[in-house]
Write a structure and sequence with these properties.
- There is one protein chain.
- The chain has 125 residues and is mainly β.
- Helix content is 8%, strand content 64%.
- The chain is globular.
Length: 125
């Protein structure tokens, strides 16, 4: 079974990409997720792993709407390996294809008078 769940912080700016195909629009977003390991080094710091993530459709729209760079998010999905060739060199990548997510640190609402510290409403199911 290929099922992964990660809780971490978003490391990159979130960009919602859109492409029209077959009379409908397809949405996706890619980002890197920093996940701290349980074990603490002798220096008192935790090692961190970085994972490439991709979300499609309503998950992509929800993540870009409610999550923020540096904010915590829990993502669930499956790891998929991709490979491609560039300049005669073969590259391999692994990405987490997100099936479900839960935003922990929401974007702040902005008003004309400045930033308000209220959380954005929870995304609809």
């Amino acid at each position: 079974m290929n099922e992964c769940t990660y809780l971490g912080r978003i490391c990159t700016d979130l960009v919602l990409n859109k492409k029209a195909m077959d009379d409908k629009e397809n949405y996706w977003t890619r980002f890197r997720l920093a996940v701290a390991r349980k074990r603490v080094k002798k220096e008192g710091e935790k090692d961190t792993d970085f994972f490439n993530c991709i979300a499609f459709g309503s998950a992509a729209k929800g993540i870009c709407t409610y999550a923020k760079k540096g904010g915590r998010i829990c993502v669930c999905g499956e790891n998929r390996e991709n490979n491609f060739e560039k300049d005669g060199v073969k590259y391999y990548t692994v990405e987490l294809f997100i099936k479900d997510y839960h935003v922990i640190d929401f974007k702040e609402k902005k008003q004309a008078s400045g930033v308000v510290t209220e959380e954005a409403p929870f995304p609809p199911e």
